[in-house]
Amino acid sequence: MNKNPYSPHTEADRTAMLERIGLRSVDELFNAIPRDARSPRLGIGAGMSEQEVQAHLEKLAAMNKTAGSGPFFIGGPIQRRYIPAAVPVLALRGDFLTAYTPYQPEVSQGTLQAVFEYQSLLAELLAMDVVNSSMYDGGSATAEAALMAVRLTGRKKVVVSSDVDFTFRRTLRTYARGAELEIVDVPADRLASSADGAACVIVQHPDAFGTLVDVRAIADAAHEAGALCVQVTEPHALALLEPPGALGVDIAVGEGQPLGIPMSYGGPHLGIFACRGGLVRQMPGRIAGQTVDADGVRGFVNTLQTREQHIRREKATSNICTNEALAAIHAAVYLSLLGPEGLRAAARAGVARAHALANRIAALPTCRIANDGAFFDRFTLRTEMGGWDLRLALLERGIQVEATASHYVDGKRRGRDDVIVQCTEMTSESDADALVDAVAEITGSRQAVAAR
Amino acid sequence: MNKNPYSPHTEADRTAMLERIGLRSVDELFNAIPRDARSPRLGIGAGMSEQEVQAHLEKLAAMNKTAGSGPFFIGGPIQRRYIPAAVPVLALRGDFLTAYTPYQPEVSQGTLQAVFEYQSLLAELLAMDVVNSSMYDGGSATAEAALMAVRLTGRKKVVVSSDVDFTFRRTLRTYARGAELEIVDVPADRLASSADGAACVIVQHPDAFGTLVDVRAIADAAHEAGALCVQVTEPHALALLEPPGALGVDIAVGEGQPLGIPMSYGGPHLGIFACRGGLVRQMPGRIAGQTVDADGVRGFVNTLQTREQHIRREKATSNICTNEALAAIHAAVYLSLLGPEGLRAAARAGVARAHALANRIAALPTCRIANDGAFFDRFTLRTEMGGWDLRLALLERGIQVEATASHYVDGKRRGRDDVIVQCTEMTSESDADALVDAVAEITGSRQAVAAR
Amino acid sequence: MTVVKRQPMPDAGATDVKALEPLLIELARPGRGGRHVRAEANADIPPHYQRKAPLGLPELTEPQVVRHYTHLAELNYSVDGGMYPLGSCTMKYNPKVNDRAASLFADLHPRQSYRTTQGVLALAYELEEMLVKITGMDFVTLQPAAGAQSEFTALLMFKAYHAKRGDAKQRRRIIVPDSAHGTNPASAAMCGYQVATVKSDARGNVDLEALKAALGPDVAGFMLTNPNTLGLFEERVREVCAAVHDAGGLVYGDGANMNALLGVARPGDLGFDCVHINVHKTFSTPHGAGGPGAGPLCVKMHLRPFLPKPWIVRESDGTYHYDTAREDREPESIGDSIGSVKQRLGNFGVLARAYTYIKTLGDEGLTETGRDAVLAANYLLALVREKYDVAYDRTPMHEFVLSAAKQKKQGATALDLSKALLDEGFHSPTVYFPLIVPEALMIEPTETEPKETLDAFAAALNRLADRAASDPTSVHDAPKNTPLRRLDEVTAARSPKLKWQRPT
Amino acid sequence: MTVVKRQPMPDAGATDVKALEPLLIELARPGRGGRHVRAEANADIPPHYQRKAPLGLPELTEPQVVRHYTHLAELNYSVDGGMYPLGSCTMKYNPKVNDRAASLFADLHPRQSYRTTQGVLALAYELEEMLVKITGMDFVTLQPAAGAQSEFTALLMFKAYHAKRGDAKQRRRIIVPDSAHGTNPASAAMCGYQVATVKSDARGNVDLEALKAALGPDVAGFMLTNPNTLGLFEERVREVCAAVHDAGGLVYGDGANMNALLGVARPGDLGFDCVHINVHKTFSTPHGAGGPGAGPLCVKMHLRPFLPKPWIVRESDGTYHYDTAREDREPESIGDSIGSVKQRLGNFGVLARAYTYIKTLGDEGLTETGRDAVLAANYLLALVREKYDVAYDRTPMHEFVLSAAKQKKQGATALDLSKALLDEGFHSPTVYFPLIVPEALMIEPTETEPKETLDAFAAALNRLADRAASDPTSVHDAPKNTPLRRLDEVTAARSPKLKWQRPT
Ligand SMILES: Cc1ncc(COP(=O)(O)O)c(C=O)c1O
Ligand SMILES: Cc1ncc(COP(=O)(O)O)c(C=O)c1O
């Protein structure tokens, strides 16, 4: 029996194949390899049967505490949202899952139309002219937006709000090392005034802490200064908030994972990337476009490829090749299922629960909501003891939240030490109760609660 | 929004449809219904969103203790076996899952070839001439085998071994009420001598307690007496045991669930039904057969339908209509994946673990193995305290076994009060240790074990 | 499946037969195989019992198996792929959440203690309550695996009921309408009953006079489908049931057409003694290419004692167990129960899907379903009635039966039309059933087909009627555009090939 | 997908364009919709921020959505459906157990504490160890989302490495062979490097003399794919690496072709400073119609300090955490690390599949994979070499490049042949890459295609060569038998339609 359980070759096959090639042993195929480097011992161990490997992975999985196993308020760009049963059933069909990039459009119309529809759905949501077929994630999409702005303006300074998600800012700074850009972090309220000489101004709305931001003002200021305005946003929020396209934004980016894609500890996810029509030739990534076949039947192809690495090589708008097409298909199925009403309902649920929860917590003498303004579906909670210790204390009670204390970027740490509380339609009443009770107890305003 | 979330009809659609029909209100469609019986109040409650219904079912599921959650030794015809990941991926494709019985073979070749291959695979395994495309389960297959024997012999007495699984004997007796058959339960060793005047003799091998039975002798005796021999069997066992077709058996039946089908608390499962070629015209159930299409291309159809209810009505060989085609497709995929070696490995694993476990338990002074002869992959354990109480004591320790005490058929109870221990490839070393330790402790031979 | 003509696969393996897809044995090679279960070298089996017969299962790799079934799947028409208007089959959409919900109960064995399966019992108990409310009956058994087994179960109960009253011996007959589904007489026969048929009247109802004439002290019961297989509501259903009851018989309700009555009317209010439900029709569980299904039987109080065992009992503390197994022990007697046709809760995996569906729809959703199903059928009929004869010209419920008698005279039979419809990209209706309608085309759109699909289907049917009128021979060799063309069923039956022949 | 010509669907909705499947907006109707999430009526948002722009998402029912994507899926060719011999893409079989295993980790958030994700960290840590052993490197980052991001990551590390040694300013150039994949120069450019190209020699190796000539104090590094994109093992790989090192440069290993080297040779033993792995090629993770992938980067000791953060640390007690987050706090400094290109462990869901695959195969399975992959390629080449020009006539590794130059002269280009191959039921090879081979057909069979499929594929290729010779025009309008025929890419690019137009 074969050592690789997926190998079809019987010993008879191998012998016949060698004969046809005109060799006596497979080893002869490797004569070009330095002798002393051939057939290394790997030392990984023996192979396992599927049954054993499945059992092994179940053991590993059991060592984790899943989001669903207790009150869960961690969020940000990656969110625990309800995934309709039909999403994986459709998006994970072998026909999508095991296809390659659609190099032969005649036998890839499933992928190409689904991706074209993804682009169209996101264009509706963002009210932007053009959406590409995906980036790796929200972080690299943000970084690529900056690089695109640099190409468009010829400027090397990038101004970014310090209220942009810290992981996005990390990736931005890392990417910036390549082109040796100057990245300037400023508080949101100083963005407008810092646009001078910048290639772009990057603002997040709603921001990392859930606060709503007046993007239009920032976009206007940016344009004043000859800079572009890049908005980082979240798909569900746009069901209720004025979209980038209506705020004068030039490039809109974000993390698409909440659109029916599992959290999977950080990936694979979906980088949303959109821009104004006029900028498309500098856009990174693949783009599907509509056309017709030789019989005049509507069809789709990957187009504007002269932007891409396989044609333009070092002059390409990006090096991206393998992207996140399957995630884009997930998002398309998700949006098709939810429709405008469903998406609004999911978004409203997060907002309503967050606000209800914030009100209950704000009523605790030991706590205050630290957002500088109205917030959307997450908020920051400030207490005497500090967010870091509160997070640990909550974790001991099986409640998972995020602490701003871990928001370091390149060593530089943001001042505040709060806890961020994210709500979605998955946040239940009992989750909310658990959090309020625990916070009350930990921060010592038990009586206050009892009184209520 | 519609109350039925799956309904596509907008109010505009409904109005247009009514107009076309020439009515003003939908109510007018129901004039034939007695006034006082129209539009009853149902009182089930309001509909739920998918998210809520999923959460509700997860709550219900959490109220069960799954087989995988602890040492598990319950088995019999329904067994906990490893299901390769590819089985559900393939068998549950919408193309199979949401198709109907293949009434239009031109657009149902997927179902028909898969079922034809199921029949062929089972014919190989059973070494029988003909296998039908499925019965409801092993119990109804056993009952239908008796009815078929009655039709073939014109006799109304059915002799069944009391070592046939009790649920099968229950179903047999229930079915027998219809044709008013005489069902005679006899110990396996008296089967041969009781065949006189019987339509058939029903023997199980391996039997309900795992014991191996000499089927050939019984088949010979049955044929002597002009009776048919019906063997109840288990698919994995046949990878290692001489098959019914080689033992002179006329009709072979069994439960097909272990072939890649989830236990699902008892169904949907798969009734295996096979017979000698000469008997096929009296066979119940659907049968797929090979033919060609108008272009001479090989294809498959449901055939020999003149046996069936939709054609023969009260003269049909059975009333079965909807059967378990999808389970048959599961079994076909499972057998294709495992192949002869895989099936043998799975079968051997059960046998090896059962024998190892039996040896360890037999070594306990308080226990003895109560099988009357060599056994396959399950055995009966007899103790002073009785199987019933032992089972409960084990359950308190999170170990699940079956007690023969629950083997009542029509009120008549079998004498023995043992515990049955089933092993499969899923039985782990630690499961075995847990059982041995618990039995030792419960039955009070701790020291004896410690000594070891 | 998108309806298309297929060409044989290129990697068809070493076979010279013309085929869309090779057989597993044609793909197999000695020595191939995967590694799905843990290897185990030996098993201690006495030589006498060891298998000597060859174990001729094909040897394949997982990649080959995946391709094989992927190719086969693509040859199937399915509800996921298109409209499936099979009359009497209620091929509505099968919600995906139902499948996911059911999978939560996959790893449970029916012989587990009630102590470890409270969730199962709670679900089943509530499902029984819901079915009682939907049908207007008093009690339910979830045990039957399908409609036919439910019929058989009910008739066994009829027998036990009459036996209890002492006249089982004399009541040897079951009456069924001439429009009845084949399983009805077949189930009666399996119960040892003689089957008598009553004809339908001009309006498609049971001929009440004929029924009365047939009724007598030798009648055990009457089996009635309502709406019947013509898609028509039995206009004098209460008189029919009363007549049977007056004769000491019981009325069996075949609930295969229950979709039309959801929230519209309840069999329990119409005189039936019991009714079965095909959850694989009415409650959206997928049909699985021929099964599985589930056929819960709902009965009135007087039939309760005869229900299959075990029964679920709910304690005041909200826990559940089986009446026959408070301590998981069977009782000394199961009383008047007929026994059991399947263990415990039957096809629980299917029932869990039905439960999920009913919970999702709720009162209003169920009612909307019944009303939309009937509306859709009437709309579709309105679109095609000019071109086809309508078997019985009455307002149908959820389905209707056309007759292609006119087209047959023109030279195109119902069979021809059904095949030509495949070329149009639709599955065909049920044909040649019910038997009392010549060239029957039995059409059930269900509530889940959008209006534009109904329009497209009607247009296709009407195009075919035109072709039948203008150029009937053009449909004789249909279908042309399907994976295979018409199959030779005659040879298949005359010289049956029921399993593959190993290449020698 | 079985390769077949499709006809537009009958329930194509209200669209008059000729199309295989309508667009979502063509299927939508105002007022349609499902009920997937809990209803929520209000959300407190200041008017200034509220959406005023219309939210033009299509309104559909779940049944419509299921049919739509089922129809679309059927239009795709896939590995599950057939052989996919795209050179450089390693389209091997994607085991189903890998997907199931990965799904066990779906409900975990990357910002959870290491305390609640020990299983994740244990898996990732062991995967790093396994990759070290397979590549012969010292350390690994799992962060890069794909090969290209891994290249970019590595080049950032090169830059940091040279900066640390003080000569980053002068080292502005990256050298790539003329056979390099497009991502190589593109990644270099993203790092602000100038890109220089060295030509290949007559045997398809890097022209060592040309390389030496190009090397100098201004060179930061050299990017080498081995086996290269011609499928050829770099015969003087050690001299090549040594030359680069002598010039103070670093050697990047593009590991896209690692499948050929599994258990056969380790980049770490050949002189590379680092190598990336496309787990979506070598380690069987599904390509998802264009992604996701994962591109772990394996490096030698001297590059370790520059690896992206965080790093996994294993405590003596067998517990795991991140070096930058012992208490989930970030450090004051990340040292010489370039930062991070993705958070924490990158595409963990993909990496979990790769881990499952490696565990399944083990040492012997991996070795057999490399050997079978190379054997299959050489066998296939032997079957087709008479009819096509072979770009470089040497024993290839896991793939080989044919030139259709001869056929082009006859009147059939590589493009024509690739389209005609679709009609034969096979996916086409990679065409027109590498750029240095005229009319390139780059063919990679992988180890999972059975011999009989290789034979069938070779027969098809040879049939096409014959057609090119006898009747070249016959391939000009291929494909004829696919869902669509050749698409008009020119118009698509000249007047781009990049999203649907709402029907007005
Ligand atoms: C009217 C009618 N009665 C009974 C049945 C039998 O139900 P089942 O197929 O579930 O056994 C059917 C299903 O075909 C039917 O249509
Ligand atoms: C040789 C080579 N290098 C690099 C890449 C880029 O890898 P990825 O697509 O994962 O970004 C590829 C994949 O196409 C490749 O074939």
Average predicted local confidence, pLDDT of chain C? 95
Encode the helix/strand succession of chain C as letters. HHHHEHEHEHEHEEEEEHEEHHEEHH
Give a count of the beta strands of chain A, DSSP E runs of length 2 or more.
15
Unreliable stretches covering 5 or more consecutive residues of chain C: none
What is the arithmetic mean of pLDDT of chain A? 95
H/E element sequence of chain A: HHHHHEHEHEHEHEEEEEHHEEHEEEEHH
Q: Approximately what portion of the residues of chain C adopt beta-strand conformation? A: 5-15%
Structure class of chain C:
alpha/beta
Strands of chain C, count: 13
Instruction: Bin the strand percentage of chain A.
Output: 5-15%
Structural class of chain A: alpha/beta
Which features does this protein show?
A: 452 residues; 37% helix; 14% strand; C: 504 residues; alpha/beta; 7-stranded mixed β-sheet; 4-stranded antiparallel β-sheet; 13 helices
Question: What does this entry show, briefly?
Answer:
Chain A is of the alpha/beta class. Chain A is built from 14 helices and 15 strands.
